[in-house]
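Technical appendix A lists one of the benchmark inputs used to test multi-chain prediction within the project. The record comprises two sequence entries:
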Amino acid sequence: MTSHFLTRSLDRSATVFLTIVAAVGVLLPLLNLLLPDTSILHVPTYLMTLFGKYVCYAVLALSIDLIWGYCGILSLGHGAFFALGGYAMGMYLMRQIGPRGVYADPVLPDFMVFLNWKSLPWYWQGFDMFWFAALMVVLVPGVLAFCFGWLAFRSRVTGVYLSIITQAMTYALLLGFFRNDFGFGGNNGLTDFKDILGFNVQAEGTRAALFTLSCLALAVSFLICRAVVGSKLGKVLIAIRDAESRTRFLGYRVESYKLFVFTLSACIAGVAGALYVPQVGIINPSEFAPGNSIEAVIWVAVGGRGTLVGAALGAVVVNYAKTLFTSGMLAPYWLFMLGALFVLVTLLLPKGIVGTWNAWRDARQVTGLTDDTHSATFEDGAVKPHMAE
Amino acid sequence: MNALDTRKTSAMLYLDGVHVSFDGFHAINNLSMTIAPGEMRAIIGPNGAGKTTMMDIITGKTKPDSGDVLFDGVTDLTRLDETQIAELGIGRKFQKPTVFESQTVEDNLLLALNVDHRVRTTLFWQDSKADTERIGKILETIRLTNARHRLAGNLSHGQKQWLEIGMLLAQDPKLLLVDEPVAGMTDVETHQTAELLKTINRDKTVVVVEHDMTFIRELGVRVTCLHEGSVLAEGTIDQVSANERVIEVYLGR
């Protein structure tokens, strides 16, 4: 039943997407490792790591699209779950440094020695084991999302009010992680990583493996999201997005559905953060900055919300543009361009790149028919007011 | 659930001394009414008479300040929320047709089917032949068989109203609350809707709120006229429309 559950919703765009992800995930590392530096087709390591970062962002975008595009929950604090997953991985990587730190303490990370701490705080226990850290990568964001969602959805906090408290949540975490006595390296965060599972994080082979793993995570997250939105539960999510109160009168416990999808989404965001940290080599409190979460929402809007493929595409496209523009003379104007992009997409492409493409394709298919099935599919899903009187 | 020890009334729906006020405005004022099992009742009344608020109270959207609301003689509805009340078997059609516009007609009915609505069962739901057939039957009843795979948002206004009635049928409730089913319909559609409600009434209790007098006459059922949140008159349509106070309320004094 489960295999059927995972594969039943594979249509053409999903197949194309998965094929591209698989091809990139295999080819890029091969071109990096096997070809000599002199070859034109050689992919430099910095480029592969850069794309690895985009792929992690794409996974984060998927998790946002799952709740925003399909269930109408606009979270402006999803970066928090991403960062928590990242910190869990960072803690594992810190513990792997061992006596190779500047202060050469066999157990305590450098920043703790610097703060004159004598022993490891209780919440750092267990992070020397990879399986434990991997579990926490999913569990910590999941539990936070569950508690947060349980309180918010049960009290029927919706719309902009929910968005505002998600912002407050990530901001509170930002302030907390900035503090040295919080025990996560304060301002500087966690960095100077050496090994992951015994492999040097700087080595080309490790970087290639991390890139392939990120692509695998993207494919698996995509399949999970696809399975969820393709099931009857997916129809309930869309029903909640379009007419929440009506769904309640049909006998669905709306808060349970929101809680399920919000928690699942946070777990996916946590995995994205965990794969991001070893590739960029640092995790610090700035990952909790409210601006990061808002940027992630823009990726989804640009790509097309409620399409999954679009969310991933939007993350890659916007971040590639960011890399291009922030490295040249246009760098000081990047935020203005990002803002302009968001305004333009909202005005001209409200369905995003993939949403507009789908609408155009459907319109061509039904030319000559009276039935215009393409319209109104994903219009204003998230911002539509409640339809009950 | 909060079943009472003994059955207090034989009525399907029993309202007694219900009060609701919003910021000092008495929307419902000492409202008492009983609906017998299998009955169809029409509720009329000028704007602001409290018809929709009454529906809100029965379906758990609004909590009354005081008074009893009993369903099936044993269940106190004032202590339950919308989902629990829907699960008990009370279905509601809203004044403004509220269908899930971005989903197909078939999916709208699938969502409304009275099956286990918990998250896990919904996630691993498999369509069964029995459900498909049931949806097919409902589509026939509401005359939308040909629109099965169309988006609900692309239906005409009248078709949306029927789809919503179809969703009520899929819920298979004991009691149907139907708020203004013929608003904005053509004469033919109005007539067809009256026939449809009569068919439904063969095995279900129905409460209809409506302004359209021709429609109510066609239904030929007992009528309750509300005014300022309480019952003004009750009887056949002829009795009620001949009542001097009803005329006064409708024409202004």
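The longest strand of chain A covers residues 190-191. Chain A touches chain B at residues 1, 5, 228, 231-233, 235-236, 238-239, 242-243, 245-254, 256-257, 260, 371-373, 375-379, 381, 387-389 (CB under 8 Å). Comparable benchmark entries are summarised in Table A2.
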